[in-house]
Amino acid sequence: MPELLPALANRRARRSFAPEPVPAELQEILWRAVSVAPSHGNSQATRLLVASSPDVRDQLIAALSDGNRGWASAAPLLVAIASNPAHDRTAANRDGSERELWAFHAGIATGNLLAQATELGLVAHPMAGFDEPSVREVFGAPEEVRVLAVVAIGFPGEVSQLPDDLQKRETADQQRLPLDHLVVRDEWRPENSESFRGYRDAQRAKQG
Amino acid sequence: MPELLPALANRRARRSFAPEPVPAELQEILWRAVSVAPSHGNSQATRLLVASSPDVRDQLIAALSDGNRGWASAAPLLVAIASNPAHDRTAANRDGSERELWAFHAGIATGNLLAQATELGLVAHPMAGFDEPSVREVFGAPEEVRVLAVVAIGFPGEVSQLPDDLQKRETADQQRLPLDHLVVRDEWRPENSESFRGYRDAQRAKQG
Lengths: 208, 208
Hints:
The structure is a homodimer.
Chain A: H1 6-9, H2 24-35, E1 46-50, H3 54-63, H4 66-72, E2 77-83, E3 90-92, E4 98-100, H5 102-119, E5 123-127, H6 132-139, E6 146-154, H7 164-171, H8 179-182, E7 183-185, H9 196-206
Antiparallel strand pairs in A: 1-2, 2-6, 3-4, 5-6
Helix pairs in contact in A: 2-5, 3-6
């Protein structure tokens, strides 16, 4: 039986980074991985906001949540994932209602970025904890631009440099729903409605 | 210089499929690729709606847009990407406003699915052209479940079996924005505001 693609299987949202910068030629491959991501009607509405100068980097770090600022400031490369919804297409239902696709598209592009980074031996840790208006302001992005994630990228570092509580999370097993919760085969079943949190709590209760 | 990951570089939204089914063990690897995708707070709100029985498959094909129904009905495997937003977490800005993440998460999971499919030698073509309420109904999914894409999956087939207009699209080059439009380095520039459509039209006008 074939194996899961290592670029997917080996990805972890680690928080320890080596101080070495990410070379420009590796950065370019990350951008190209985003560039080849598909979008409905080939809209390509996703943009990458890269903190290059020390000043912009400091401002971006200041825009992160308190919980992320400490560990993420050690990452040599910080990139925000953004999109201009007005550049994107919507999809229409038969009743005329429309579905927005920009966040979904930005997600596919981010999946590509994470897989390519993992393949290059990099840690790439996406964060949702940031202040969106502040990130927009850091880069001078127009008001209509939406920011979906800030990704901390770098080579893996020494786990022992992290605070104790983060060291434990760094080496914890990946916790996932069983596949029969994830996959609906022909007909939705009660377990497909169970959230991961609900599943995990039920498992813990069983184990006493 | 390292190369772009083949699982990303070789992906194309092709429309010709061989009749061979996708073996169960390959399907399972696709589901596992989705399973390992990251989500904020490990919410894992994405679900895969897989058409297995001929009846469900026919109903799902009927829910596709007219433009997709023809070619996509030749794909041996049809999978809808869904999410339950209530299972997902939101992220908060400093002013208390919240950002939804479910569509972004489903996108990352879809990126994983497409990369893994490409790695296995499969075509995986995501479609936005479908009627969302109909897809929900096909699988008996609860009202709150959102459907983001239907992905047509199978081994590549003979391009010559497609109608003429689709044959041309099958072999066309991948058109992408230049990287300096995609990437904002420290400061947003006018070209970052240009849509792909605007860029393409400007290029065509230059070439007369």
